[in-house]
Amino acid sequence: MTVGSTPALPDRSKISWPFVLFFVLVHLLAIAAFWFFSWSALAVTLLLHWFFGSIGICLGYHRLLSHRSFQVPRWLEYAIAIVGALAMQGGPIFWVAGHRLHHAYTEDEIKDPYSARLGFWWSHMLWLVYPQPEFFSYELYQRYASDLVKQPFYRWLNRYFLLLQIPLGLLLFSLGGWSFLLWGIFVRAVLLWHSTWFINSVTHMWGYRTFETSDNSRNLWWAALLTYGEGWHNNHHAYPHVAKAGWRWWEIDVTWWVIWGLQKLGLARKVNMPPKF
Prior knowledge:
Keywords: Fatty acid biosynthesis, Fatty acid metabolism, Iron, Lipid biosynthesis, Lipid metabolism, Membrane, Oxidoreductase, Transmembrane, Transmembrane helix. The chain has one domain (38-264).
């Protein structure tokens, strides 16, 4: 990772202006939503934060697609992937490929897309502002999610995921006007973005360590509450293919409860459980 004694750090000379403009616009519309506040709109936001965050990202993109820590029928897998795409965090091939690289080269300044060794802001969001081609060029990153690339559905969803916000927005507007639209799309997106990004940043900086992994991953209770169990990050890095992130009784893992429920219904099988320790 070095040339002589100088670290070969990611190139920060090229800013992704489309992302920056999109990011700023969504945040501005989230702020504007406070002029259209209603308690029902807040309830919709929290419901969608859980549904898109816990079911779509944590259960779907992460534990199911990235790590294959359990299996579900193909129709259900595709439905969950659509929920993940509605979270507005990228298509499934992009998300899965980046996360697999994160685990393969955890905290490596070059090969980990959001290495925590490059600082809080880099791992939290600057890796999106200064996109490195190997993580953002489809022709390059697709090799790390070849199982998804083989399926036309995932190639389609990876390309058109952002368009799913249109029918969602129309539905929200029909149900509650501008209040539901602004809170359900933009406030929800901002809250869910930063909740997810906290796993890349703060859980590699603060918290306790149950396992002496080679990286600096940590278990952080408040991050786990915000992300429905993903904040038990040291547990996850020690055993990434285990479906359950919270292992001790106080390590609340809301996403695991859903996986457990699917298992009891016969919809989840080959569920990888933690070893006894």
